[in-house]
Amino acid sequence: MNKPATGIQARHREETRERILAAAERVFAEYGYEGASFGRIAQEVNLPKSNVVYYFETKKKLYRLVVEDIFNVWRQAADNIQPDSDPEQALGEYIDTKLELARVRPHGSKVWANEIIQRAPIVQDYLENELRDWTNDRISVIDGWIDRGMIRPINARNLLYAIWATTQHYADFTHQIQTLNDDKELSETQWSETKRAVKDILINGISKG
Amino acid sequence: MNKPATGIQARHREETRERILAAAERVFAEYGYEGASFGRIAQEVNLPKSNVVYYFETKKKLYRLVVEDIFNVWRQAADNIQPDSDPEQALGEYIDTKLELARVRPHGSKVWANEIIQRAPIVQDYLENELRDWTNDRISVIDGWIDRGMIRPINARNLLYAIWATTQHYADFTHQIQTLNDDKELSETQWSETKRAVKDILINGISKG
DNA sequence: AAATTTCTTGTACGTTCGGTCAATCTTTTT
DNA sequence: AAAAAGATTGACCGAACGTACAAGAAATTT
What we know:
CATH architecture of the largest domain in chain A: Orthogonal Bundle
GO biological process, one term (chains A, B): negative regulation of DNA-templated transcription
CATH superfamily of the largest domain in chain A: Tetracycline Repressor, domain 2
Keywords (chains A, B): DNA-binding
Protein name (chains A, B): Transcriptional regulator, TetR family
Order of helices and strands of chain A: HHHHHHHHHH
Strand content of chain A: under 5%
Oligomer: homodimer
Largest sheet of chain A: none
Number of domains of chain A: 2
Shape of chain A: globular
Organism (chains A, B): Cognatiyoonia sediminum
Helix content of chain A: over 70%
Largest interface: A-B, 53 and 53 residues
Structural class of chain A: mainly alpha
Radius of gyration of chain A: 20 Å
Number of strands of chain A: 0
Pfam family, one (chains A, B): TetR_C_3
């Protein structure tokens, strides 16, 4: 798909694109779609505005790439939710991975949240296809576990939503959590404790006996 | 605090202010702070832009009123979390109420989410005072329950976050949920099932035995 | 090394927006 | 009913934004 990046120019192009995309994720997260501007993104990567436009043409196209990226990262995080997995372990790992993503890539999550809150004006087609199919697959797996008596008969869809909501909360509401933590970032220890506690609460809700 | 609203003028003023506030909540939710404009809000209530400006002076002031309003509604929803309440019932009612608010007033929740995602540029002082005190009070109550052996020793703060995240998810991510529900609004039955399932998952995580 | 393609950058244009202001109309107070 | 206060509205302004464009610099291809 991508060119192998021979030559000085091609290599430099990829590098610049990546830098712009990273900055765009931050700026879209912090200011919202309308609030973000080419000017501010350009400033963050120390390039003239017109150069950023040259690489991505329109704000909409740049934004879409940012949104699709975070979705694909999340999709991978659920790879281990398979019919033959151990439910508690698979979901535990899924929660761990999503919380780790909330920690190291909070901006992508915020952009996604913003897009959904505003009724997906840009990526609605993505929701109707990729997201819908992917979600239904995961629900089938969980229902399969229930059929085989491996977990309590909970509502698979609402469980999935609870996991999404809780894990993404730590990305989207970072600022609130930080304020309630006396304006300090969560420490290493607090993150571990959070992972343990979230699994404790959610997994306890599904296990038998 | 408010004038008793005698006379035609005063009554009409209150009425107009309310209509504008309701429209502003919708518009801020749907377009974000930057994306929302006096023009669009004015259009929704069929008034000239300058009249809306006359009532609220600046966009910031109007926005702040909207944000404070939803916070106060949420605060009330937790009134029954008291030391002498039955934990499972009190938290169950809290979840029910918050889900009902997610259903009937999704816009306020979205505005709050947006504000927090963007690092509370307008209401940071609110977080530092009202929200922080209120949260610590609730955590004390839950820890009290744990001390008296009424629930499992879970992490009270993370439990609170899980409840917020999960309930508000049904407001903030309405559009995604609807898309995954074949583009249909959740039915009466589905809302009941959701309330049951969310309580099932979260409350099961705290109960003893 | 000449020709071609790709990248860089400053300028400029049309639009939208928040907010001001003054003129007019309506309600309340005296 | 005269005077004062409050409400309504259209016109207007300066700033910011998305993006089109042209002209030159650099890299690549021939």
